[in-house]
Automatic annotation (TrEMBL):
Belongs to the CdaR family. It comes from the Bacteria. Pfam families: GGDEF_2 (PF17853), HTH_30 (PF13556), PucR (PF07905). This is PucR family transcriptional regulator. Residues 19-140 form the Purine catabolism PurC-like domain. Residues 301-420 form the CdaR GGDEF-like domain. PANTHER family: CARBOHYDRATE DIACID REGULATOR, DNA-BINDING TRANSCRIPTIONAL ACTIVATOR ADER.
């Protein structure tokens, strides 16, 4: 009695012929399986004691038939007819006692049972048939009561989910946990939006998803379909078919889907319909966001899982290169939903496979999957134009190209570094409307590091004495130092920029050297001061 479901959650497997034969009440009769050994896993629905020549007329299928052999016909044709009727009605097995009429099973009976695949079991010792029925029926009725209680728990669990406004991820996760099987939610174009694996890896569950899903035909009710034997149920939205939820069979040979699985999946579909009404955000958008977050944060268990997950969403994972981009809308400006929708529309119109989703408040992520010969710059330029048309203060940052889907986290990290190094109002490069790594110079690098205490401490240590002197004496030596450093140490140019005579410039530079204990003729020391002064400008502008 193997159970493929979590303890205490899944349905109790049906009582089989093998299970009944192992019960002490029958085992005492020393049962021997004469024919039908491969069919001992047949479920037993009831036990029927008979001494009639035509017992099949009183059966409905699934019965374990007990007989002393007294009513068996004496002729071979009659025996065949007797067995044909039992097999035709779907009897689980025939158990004959070898005590009264027979001491060995008749050859005609053995041959007929073997021909029809009907398990024939002999009992070498006398068995109380009434006691057998009492024991087996008690077990069957107990299983039915357990099934009713489990069905009630299913209804209660999904009612609770609906009342608390659970989202689709919660509903699908509950279905997978209660069934012990993998559950997948897909839309009408066979994109797997949510997958909760149980007993399978994501790769095993979603590999070649669209092809496998299309081979599993549609249906208006909950039923087992397709070559893989998926249990599927339709999911509706506002009276229209929206998609379906599928429960996948176990990877190993386990119990087939039963009535409780059907009930569970039907309640799952109903809860998803309600969730679709409560949560208006398109679930495709949520699926893109979750897939992007999994890639960015590298939450996949394996590279194969990542590829299968993205491919099931319609993103080709065998493309020549991938490019990540970030859209920062700047806090409080809003417009994220409209911008996201427009970007997805632009990419769809351009025929560019991509994932688009919100990675954080006011930040959208884009992952482009491009063919080897397909340039990414025109595509990003087009997207940037759309973004700036909707949100002029937005910043579009692009990461590095990568050739493997599992390296996209690196591309997103690069795009994030660009975004962090882009202060508000940063002018765009003259030839494009987005920012990339090559745009980051010293000032933008220091802007990205402005909150680092080491940068702040370095700036203060280098310039504190000069700043204090200016404050105490009302001078502006800091500006003089800036002119000198910007002139690359050319005193004449520095004096002209500051509107000073050469003599005054020389005097001020000597004062700066004295205050800072620095040699301004040293290229290294001038560089150190230039970095500190640039950092100070960044810190004061923040």
């Amino acid at each position: 009695m193997n159970d493929n479901h979590p303890a205490g959650q899944g349905p109790t497997p049906p009582l089989t012929v093998a299970d009944v034969l192992a019960l002490p009440v029958l085992a005492a009769g020393r049962p021997e399986v004469v024919t039908g050994m491969p069919h001992l896993d047949r479920p037993v629905r009831w036990v029927h004691i008979t001494e009639l020549t035509d017992p099949a007329s009183f059966l409905k299928g699934g019965e374990l038939v007990l007989t002393t052999g007294m009513p068996l016909p004496t002729d071979a044709a009659g025996v065949r007819r007797y067995v044909d009727e039992l097999a035709g009605v779907g009897a689980a097995a025939l158990v004959i006692e070898l005590v009264r009429r027979y001491h060995r099973p008749p050859d005609a009976l053995v041959d007929a049972c073997r021909l029809r695949g009907l398990p024939l079991v002999t009992l070498a010792k006398d068995v109380n048939f009434l006691e057998v029925t009492q024991v087996v029926h008690a077990l069957l009725l107990g299983n039915q009561a357990d099934a009713m209680r489990r069905t009630q728990r299913i209804h209660e669990a999904f009612t609770a989910l609906t009342l608390r406004g659970a989202g689709p991820e919660d509903v699908v996760r509950a279905a997978a946990e209660m069934s012990g099987r993998t559950v997948v939610l897909e839309n009408l174009v066979h994109q797997a939006l949510i997958c909760e694996p149980s007993g399978l890896t994501v790769e095993e569950a979603l590999a070649d998803w669209e092809q496998r899903s299309r081979a599993t035909g549609p249906g208006d009710n909950t039923a087992i379909r397709g070559p893989e034997g998926w249990l599927t149920a339709p999911v509706e939205y506002q009276g229209e078919r929206w998609g379906r939820v599928a429960m996948l069979p176990a990877r190993t040979d386990g119990p087939a889907f039963g009535p409780e699985d059907v009930t569970l999946l039907e309640r799952t579909a109903m809860a998803l319909t309600v969730a679709r009404l409560i949560h208006p955000t398109p679930w495709e958008r949520t699926a893109h966001r979750n897939a992007l977050l999994d890639l960015v944060e590298q939450r996949h268990r394996s590279a194969e899982d990542a590829r299968a997950r993205c491919a099931a969403l319609g993103l080709p994972t065998d493309r020549g290169h991938f490019v990540a981009a970030l859209v920062d809308l700047r806090a409080g400006k809003g417009g994220g939903v409209e911008t996201e929708s427009r970007l997805m529309q632009e990419l769809s119109t351009a025929g560019v496979p991509a994932l688009v989703g919100e990675l954080a408040p006011d930040r959208l992520g884009i992952l482009l999957a491009l063919r080897t010969s397909q340039p990414w710059r025109p595509i990003v330029e087009r997207l940037s134009g759309t973004v700036l048309g909707l949100a002029p203060e937005a910043v579009v940052s692009v990461g590095s190209e990568v050739t493997d889907l599992t390296d996209t986290a690196r591309s997103f990290r690069a795009a994030a570094r660009v975004a962090e190094a882009t202060p508000p109002g940063q002018p765009l490069p003259p030839d494009r409307s987005f920012h990339e790594l090559t745009d980051i110079g010293l000032r933008r690098l220091l802007y990205a590091l402005r909150e680092d205490p080491r940068v702040q401490e370095y700036t203060e240590r280098q310039l504190r004495r000069l700043i204090d002197h200016d404050i105490q004496h009302g001078t502006d030596l800091l500006t003089t130092l800036r002119h000198y450093l910007e002139a690359a140490g050319n005193k004449t140019t520095a004096a002209r920029r500051g509107g000073l005579s050469r003599e005054t410039m020389y005097q001020r530079l000597r004062t700066i050297e004295r205050l800072l204990a620095r040699d301004l003729e040293s290229g290294d020391q001038r560089t150190e001061l230039h970095v500190a002064l640039t950092a100070l400008d960044v810190l004061r502008a923040d």
